């Protein structure tokens, strides 16, 4: 069985999440995270364990700067219920850094949710 339709479905959800991120729509971003004590989000300078920590951080976080550009977005379905999404991102005026973002999406009873996320940045080595 091809997992391409599942990858397309999660890609659309990821794009909607990214749109919410750029608009700083906190409720929309919170809604795609697993409502569980087990959800994990590692940010550039912080760590959240559990949905309450994710929501508290998101409520106080500075919005993403305008002009954020993504590249090399990959959506890989491992199974019909587990999809990995990864992307690189850059901000205008910060050419020496490249950001990395990865999410694990799981299909749960309530639908597709991010169960683990990681955001970090490194010096740009010309990728």
Q: In a few lines, what is going on in this structure?
A:
Helices cover 28% and strands 40% of the residues.
Descriptive account of the structure:
With 127 residues, the chain is α+β, with helices and mostly antiparallel strands. It is 28% helix and 40% strand. It contains three helices and six strands, in the order H-H-E-E-H-E-E-E-E. The protein has helices spanning 4-23, 26-31, 51-60; strands at residues 40-42, 47-49, 69-79, 82-90, 97-108, 111-123. Strands 2-1-6-5-4-3 form a six-stranded mixed sheet, with helices on one face. Strand 3 (69-79) and strand 4 (82-90) form a beta hairpin. The chain starts with a helix and ends with a strand.
What characteristics describe this protein?
alpha+beta; 127 residues; 3 helices; six-stranded mixed sheet
| Overall pLDDT | 93
Report Rg: 15 Å
Beta-strand proportion: 35-45%
Give the strand line-up of the largest sheet.
Answer: 2-1-6-5-4-3
What is the H/E string?
A: HHEEHEEEE
Model regions low in confidence, pLDDT < 50 over at least 5 residues: none
Q: Which structural class do the helices and strands define? A: alpha+beta
Give me the number of helical elements.
Answer: 3
Number of strands: 6
Helix content: 25-40%
The 3D shape can be described as: globular
- First-to-last CA distance: 33 Å
Instruction: Note the main sheet.
Output: 6 strands, mixed
Structural topology:
Blueprint: H1 4-23, H2 26-31, E1 40-42, E2 47-49, H3 51-60, E3 69-79, E4 82-90, E5 97-108, E6 111-123
Parallel strand pairs: 1-6
Antiparallel strand pairs: 1-2, 3-4, 4-5, 5-6
């Amino acid at each position: 069985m091809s997992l391409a339709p599942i990858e397309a479905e999660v890609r659309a959800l990821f794009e909607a999440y990214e749109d919410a991120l750029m608009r700083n729509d906190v409720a929309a971003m919170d809604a795609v995270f697993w409502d569980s004590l087990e959800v994990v989000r590692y940010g550039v300078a912080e760590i959240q364990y559990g949905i309450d920590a994710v929501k508290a951080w998101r409520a106080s976080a500075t919005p993403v700067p305008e002009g954020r550009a993504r590249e090399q977005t990959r959506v890989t379905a491992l199974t019909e219920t587990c999809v990995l999404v990864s992307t690189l991102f850059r901000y205008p005026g910060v050419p020496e850094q490249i950001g990395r973002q990865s999410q694990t999406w799981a299909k749960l009873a309530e639908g597709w949710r991010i169960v683990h996320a990681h955001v970090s940045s490194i010096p740009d080595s010309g990728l």
